[in-house]
Design brief:
This protein has about 250 residues and is α/β, with parallel strands linked by helices. The chain has eight helices and twelve strands. A hairpin with a 4-residue loop joins strand 5 and strand 6.
Length: about 250
Amino acid sequence: MAPRLGHDNLGLGVGLRTPHYHHILQQQPQVDWFEIISENYLVEGGKALYFLDAIGEHYPLVMHGVSLSIGGSHALDIDYLRQLKQLADRVQPQWVSDHLCWSRGNAHQLHDLLPLPFTQESLLHVAARVRLVQDVLERPIVLENVSSYVQWTTSSMSESQFLSELSYLTGCELLLDVNNVYVSTFNHDLDPQTFIRSIPHERVVQFHLAGHRDYETHLIDTHDDHVIDPVWQLYRLAHNLTGGVSTLLE
């Protein structure tokens, strides 16, 4: 299969977690690649980086962040971006990703992935921040759609349209979380297939799959259960439309 935006299809991967370190190095399981949480390795030394270096000798790695807050109104944290670049220079990941959301106020990290208003003003604001991030990292950033439980009444476009416009404006790439599509569209009474069909498939370089909790009136993205059949069906649609890209089971 031809590379997508210069990225190979890595196959099927899982998230790298601390309890896995020794097993991976001793047994070298048949996993195609690992995704790391970037913030866990923004340190100057120690065991975490030792194991990361050792595992990276045997497996492709992808960096996935949770605190970029690309849509926030605060100034971007340049020190954080420089740390991120330093880690990327060390790890040489296949790509670096984070979420299309905001997650902090002026000074405080809220530790949540909060939805944006999908407006033209917001689009231009986020696009400028994406360009800055990419200038510092010296590579495209890959952005993921998040699960949402509320919507902004000011939104004038769909999330899929916002992602499409942002990708075309900045050259950023997309991580399509299929479970998040299912959760968000259920919560907002939208059609998940329309979302999947509406994004620019040529910009998608990775999929996420996960489980969630069903509270009947709403779904919560929890990553603590199996992937349900409707999500697998959406994944099949996304796979067919994109031609298949690297897939991570969270």
